[in-house]
Amino acid sequence: QVQLVEAGGGLVQVGDSLRLSCAASGGTLSNYAMGWFRQSPGKEREFVATISRGGLSFGYAGFVKDRFTISRDNAKNTLYLQMNTLKPEDTAVYYCGASQVQTTQPGLYDYWGQGTQVTVSS
């Protein structure tokens, strides 16, 4: 059973940056493709970014391309999401997930963290 714990969220201003992390325990992160998703009140969980097991293949939602960067350090069992030039519409709870396949579909993820709140104030 893999446990995922996100950290790094907070309240920031428009244009600021944040770096989210997702620490894994109870399993080896390199066995999984990983993804970041976000969810706002009243909305479904939406795909943000994904990364392959080895960290060489990436995928991003159109709305975050060139602003967000997903990365992983398998030696530290940790996933990251660097978020730059944040906008008010980026406000959401951000979740990391682990999957057997690299995918944008949340239903195919086996494990989820509890989420970390990101609030971007104008």
Structure description:
By secondary structure, the protein is an all-beta fold. It contains no helices and 11 strands. Strands 2, 4, 5, 6, 9, 10 and 11 form a 7-stranded mixed β-sheet that branches. β7 and β8 form a beta hairpin.
List the keywords.
122 residues; mainly beta; 7-stranded mixed β-sheet; 11 strands
Give the secondary structure arrangement, pairings included.
Blueprint: E1 3-7, E2 10-13, E3 18-25, E4 33-39, E5 46-51, E6 58-60, E7 68-73, E8 78-83, E9 92-99, E10 109-112, E11 116-121
Parallel strand pairs: 2-11
Antiparallel strand pairs: 1-3, 3-8, 4-5, 4-9, 5-6, 7-8, 9-10, 9-11
The unreliable regions are: none
Radius of gyration, CA atoms, in whole angstroms? 13 Å
Helix/strand order: EEEEEEEEEEE
Number of strands: 11
Structural class computed from helices and strand pairing: mainly beta
Helical segment count: 0
Largest sheet: 7 strands, mixed
Helix content percent band: under 10%
Could you tell me how far the N terminus lies from the C terminus, measured between alpha carbons in angstroms? 40 Å
Could you provide a short overview of the structure?
The chain is 0% helix and 52% strand. It has strands at residues 3-7, 10-13, 18-25, 33-39, 46-51, 58-60, 68-73, 78-83, 92-99, 109-112, 116-121.
